């Protein structure tokens, strides 16, 4: 049997019990925020939360997930309001974004246990690989997320994307015939 909970929804995968959790999430549940990186558990792109622990989902079978509670990036916060997501965005950390879901999940698991992590705590808990080299900004952003989680800092919401078409029309001067 392969029954467990994913993002607060009970699931029963009718797949080979030795299927890596990563592929069950991506292929059977269409939760594609969890990324395939190396397949060996080294890079962390596939990190999810299993019963409060950051787990490399490429290394966990669905049989071993039996009875657990799994949270993916999609289940962490649909509106990016989790303190880690807020801090990473406000600190301009994401670049290509491929590794970010795994990093967010590892950092969220850390902050659930320790809302005031040291640089050393972060380096030990968030071992994910980022080819863009975000590490210096990442440590600061995770500490900022801790301050947000503790209530010591707030981040104003980002501006809504786009512009009201009526406002856009006001800001562009009308051209006379002939373009002058």
From TrEMBL:
Q: Which GO terms describe its molecular function?
A: 2 iron, 2 sulfur cluster binding; metal ion binding; oxidoreductase activity
Q: Which domain of life is it from?
A: Bacteria
In this chain, the stretch annotated as Disordered covers: 149-180
The UniProt entry, under PROSITE patterns, shows:
2FE2S_FER_1, 2FE2S_FER_2
Q: What is this protein called?
A: (2Fe-2S)-binding protein
Q: Which InterPro entries match?
A: 2Fe-2S-bd (IPR002888), 2Fe-2S-bd_dom_sf (IPR036884), 2Fe-2S_ferredoxin-like_sf (IPR036010), 2Fe-2S_ferredoxin-type (IPR001041), 2Fe2S_fd_BS (IPR006058), Beta-grasp_dom_sf (IPR012675), Diverse_Oxidoreductases (IPR051452)
Q: Keywords on this record?
A: 2Fe-2S, Iron, Iron-sulfur, Metal-binding, Oxidoreductase
Keyword Oxidoreductase assigned to the entry: answer is yes
Q: Which residues form the 2Fe-2S ferredoxin-type domain?
A: 1-76
């Amino acid at each position: 049997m392969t029954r467990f909970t994913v993002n607060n929804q009970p699931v029963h995968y009718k797949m080979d019990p030795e299927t890596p959790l990563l592929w069950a999430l991506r292929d059977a549940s269409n939760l594609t925020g969890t990324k395939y990186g190396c397949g060996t558990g080294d890079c962390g792109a596939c990190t999810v939360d299993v019963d409060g622990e950051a787990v490399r989902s490429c290394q966990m079978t669905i049989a071993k997930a039996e009875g657990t509670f799994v949270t993916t990036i999609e289940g962490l916060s649909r509106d990016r309001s989790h303190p880690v997501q807020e801090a990473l965005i406000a600190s301009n950390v994401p670049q290509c974004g491929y590794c970010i879901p795994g990093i967010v999940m590892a950092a969220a698991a850390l902050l659930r246990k320790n809302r005031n992590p040291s640089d050393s705590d972060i380096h030990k808990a968030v071992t994910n690989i980022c080819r863009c080299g975000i590490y210096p900004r990442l440590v600061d952003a995770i500490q900022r997320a801790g301050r947000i989680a503790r209530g010591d800092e707030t981040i104003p919401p980002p501006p809504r994307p786009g512009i009201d078409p009526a406002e856009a029309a006001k800001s562009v001067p009308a051209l006379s015939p002939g373009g002058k």
